[in-house]
């Protein structure tokens, strides 16, 4: 059995690696980044500017340099043939994009840089400004020439304009179009963001959060504990309740109860979780109706040293509504699955034999049906395990529980890449482990299962 | 067995009912509770990023100047008076003196050396200071007074009116606590003003950077100790941040007490509640004392809820947040002002205010808030909703209506009048307004494509000038009106702050003159004329100024309700007798 698990582990590693690598790269493709939002665009919509553009640009570049985000993303990159591999170093981004377009259009990097350098040398005055702005966007030969004509009108005797005209002419004449169709591979070596991150991961360092610079592990652990309290308890509760309900439904005397509860469960299943949470709040944490529980949080700050049990008792009233909402959300599906599984077992031959032996109904259920219904139940439970680390976004947000779900949402909103990648990694890992556990549980539940070697 | 399980269930329900009796945990006495929508994340006075964090840091650290929310004016906080300004050719000197009594948590006085240290921390390379660094880039040097340890002069490059505030708008850091090994002592502020690349391998600086960039500096109660009246007591991530009043704070022993340097409540607790509905319930439950940013519809409900109005006072101060529409004048179809004026006449501002703000907003003629009476141009009226006028303006701009819409031919190019309206997704006020505008424009024959997109994508499109029209919010203040970065043509290049491309020779001149204008009359005249031009040009179309919506427990007094963030001064709160 151990050999089997090791083999499974080895199989899982490549897919884990692939998931995390893809998320690492994809997350960086989100528009905007933490730094650009906070340094470049901060206070951009205010009456007076607190700082000028170049100072912000400089600070932004310093930040990238300090945090290693100036490096290329991966070991290699594939670009269009005319693009140089150092294009990513050009700031601001609008200039970089313009240069890239020029490179694609004319396919000749030295000519593009010559033209671009001349363009930058021109002094913007109130006369030349409109034409310059056109030139900074123009890519097509026609557009460049017409903007150049405007520029010449604005500054007819300027030598820099004449040089620009020469280089533009050279570019348009000697440019080779369509070379961008050819791909070019750039090798960046180990000096890249992915390598730095992966190397850190192997030494147990998953990086630091962009938002508060704390180690990613600490932040995730903190959120994980909060998630566990509510998700684990509600998962256990709903499994226990579902099991009891399924057993009740199987018994003839309770057929009326089943007819009563089943539609309620279906109804409950069709209520969206956020509506359920808000209903619970409005009914049970509202002075207009019943004010039984606090509306939010996981306890208040209290001075003085409280023992562990006192702390827990203080916390309990806060936990009841979130746990209740999740239990009610999980319950219909789990109950239904458990009941179906038991019903299948109920109609089998061995149950009939057991009954014929004269066993009591209760004994038949506990000893024969229950044991055999375990397999589908294990599948259902193992499907819920990843929720233990993925958290429950809606419940967490509404009840202000700082768990994994709300952490993930906040990290995505703030472009806190290290946290995003780490959460995906943990969830993928737990999903894999839950499958392994399910396999182990299958074997324990049913010794007939022989594992494939 | 089933019976046993039933017992367990029964027990569970009994305990549930039992627990419900002890559901409202006792609160700490004399604690003011404020709702925050998100965790402050970082309370370092140099590297914080969120507005919520700023509100908390303001209670722990002090800047040289502060805004007195009682009358929305700038007053000296750590400084004993407003700076003495001396303008020279290319530099301006701001001379400050720190308050005699001002001291740190350990009792040592706040001196000019601390100010110098702060500037070094904000300007040095390798440190986590990139957010604020650009703000002090104009401060070139600090000159300490040889005779007076509390006096110093800041040497600044050039002059703009807002410099007065900016020279006093950063938190002063305790050098004894932040740099116990005196690592930054050997550097001067000018060392960090010029080229920094030579310092990047400096060992002393690297040691300081490792120490200062550590997460402890963002959240440790032992390190985050400033000169203000509160200190961090507890911060449980994403749950609450609690501040405790200092026992013997210098601000309470001032020879001449200052009404805006206060620390009254013994404890202030910030409760983090992300969801609005939950926050409202917490308010009704009396779990929180202050709730701001209440959604307009909910605010009206609260007003009509007797149980709420008995416990809470509701306020709607005039905020300084302007909602405006921007048209891209660089687009040939919006190149002439008549077309832009026609679009402005299709914006039904009164409906926007009624529907999206539940009337908690005031229409405005321009970017100057109507509450700033000296500068607001009363001679103008807000642009009216007039579809007939819009049609007339379009026709005189050369557009001709066809069954497919409005068309015109300029320089042989056929133009079709369509509008792609972008705004930040998730902002329901923008969404509603956009739909109202879309309907009005459709009636006038202009197809409007409404696009709610991610905030950062809006910024990108606006900065790259690839938009037609947008809705955005502008945060203002009542003291400085240097609109140059917003409206001067020198800021209209890609990535510049003049996104609409507005600007005439006259407006440029007005903006330049405003910076150097000395008298209030002159400034008012210039700004009033600017508002008229802005309305005439209709590139930057001011829609309305919002009102904030706040609920505060009515047992408190001395609130200093203001339109400026955070809308009240919690440090001044007193319990009514």
UniProtKB/TrEMBL annotation, chain A:
Keywords: Cell membrane, Membrane, Transmembrane, Transmembrane helix, Transport. One of its GO terms (biological process) is transmembrane transport. Coiled coil: none annotated. Pfam families: BPD_transp_1 (PF00528). It comes from the Bacteria. GO terms for cellular component: plasma membrane. It is found in: Cell membrane. It is a multi-pass membrane protein. Residues 224-438 form the ABC transmembrane type-1 domain. CDD domains: TM_PBP2. The keyword Transmembrane applies. The chain crosses the membrane at residues 228-250, 262-285, 316-334, 373-399, 419-445. Belongs to the binding-protein-dependent transport system permease family. This is ABC transmembrane type-1 domain-containing protein. The lineage of its organism: Bacteria, Pseudomonadati, Bacteroidota, Cytophagia, Cytophagales.
